[in-house]
Design brief:
alpha+beta; Beta-Lactamase; five-stranded antiparallel beta sheet; 49% helix; transmembrane
Amino acid sequence: MAMVSIFSLAILAIVFTALENIEQEVEHKVKESLQTVLRATQEAHHIWIQHRLLELSNAAQSESVVRSASIISQPDSPSIMRANAEASVKRSFALMMETYQDKAYWLSDLNGQVLYSNRSRDIHQTHPLFEFKTDKMEQVLTGETLFITGLPQQTKHSNNMYFSAPVFNADKQLQAVLIVSVNQSDHFSRITQLGRIWDSGETYAFDRNGLMLSASRFNEQLHRLGLLEPGQDAINNLHITDPNSANHENSKTLTLMAQSATQGITSYNLKGYPDYRGIQVVGAWTWQPTYDFGLTTEIDKAEAFQIYYRTRNIVLLGIISSLLVAVSLFLLLYFSQRNAKQDLRQARMVLEDRVKERTADLEASQQELRTAYRELEKLAVTDSLTGIPNRRCADEFLEQEWRRAQRGGYPITIMLIDIDHFKQYNDHYGHPAGDVCLEKVAQTLIATGICKRPGDLIARYGGEEFIAILSNSDFDYAEFSAKRLVKAINKAEIPHQFSLVEKQNHITISVGVSIAESADIGLTEIIDLADKALYLSKQNGRNTFRFQLPPADSSTLHIDSSSKVD
């Protein structure tokens, strides 16, 4: 009997060691899954926020917004001019509001008084960001474009996420501030919810007060628990508190995760803690100081460790059965021991199969996130109106090709392209028609086929201006390409009855060309030469092109192009 007891204790020690190893392996897999999803979602947020900041900054610097802000900010501006300026601001933001389903936008003076908004009730009121986020708005007033969140709860505002950018006048002096209220339930929540793993998993964002910033997938459960009022959404209404906790003032405390994250700590917990529903979960979290909000990925502990629990129960049942059989039938001890080991191996195989299955699910989720990243990256370098590369893409491409040309010792051509009298076009046909005109011009330039090589690019450079970059191109090809662009636009015959170009009643362009054939001239200088050439084209009647070459090349050719391109 003593031998049976010793043998039984040895078996127990072996089994509990195996269970401990299995538990550690499961914990490691769960931790890796949570942290991978958290990092992926954090990167997706960064890409989205940076794209929105760039877009708002460009809008704030656009000619229409700058001019309109100058008129609106003057109290004595004529009512007709003011009405036209307000309409221009509205048109400038129409596409952005439609694309991102943003709630509202405001144009305020430097003290925060709203000069114009799509919500008329806010006009002449002080915007809450100037009251409760003075430090952030001071940064905006110094010229920064910011993402702002975390308004104090007592403000009672439904909005808790904003983008803000300064607006400078033509003299580069700060004259106004643009503010856009983010629709948190749209792009922001959708990006956040891509981080869901398994059946009960959820990724969500919150501010420093523990207030939910993204949508919850458990709204129905929250309504049943009374944590949300009927018809109420979790965004900006639900605090990340443990519903079963209460301090001496009968107020609920933040969950373990929220307490840690709001102190700026990045960590994880696999032992389990109650979430905002009171359910035991495991999770990983981080605080993003740049954007001043926290992010967490959580999953119900019961689901995360269900494989381990099932395995443990199977093994324990096998042990108990084996011990009962061992005590009753000593002669069958050997067979009982063998069966128990077989059950253990079976359980491990089940665990491995489940882990593989969960890993496959995670890889599928990661593929979806990668697809979302690629879409966001494409949006960041593509002009939203014309669909061709934007200025950011052109600047990065030009810098790269410039360095490559210097190393390889071959020439590079830069063409600046400007639509002739486009202001008259917008004034008479309207800005929507102007947008269509820009799209047609962009597609016509692309269709010329002058930029088919890897080192060539056509991009929108701003407003009605485009840029063409031709790598390893000599003068003859540059002249051929410029002439082809001008002819293609003429051939497209985009109507412009109000064009001031002689004998033309359709859209025309002027092109300035410069070629750098050595490393003795800088990138900024060659762009300036192309700009001067563009000026010469306009001075010579437009609908043409001109060359402006570096001084070292002037003995070769200081081109004044043909007078006009038929």
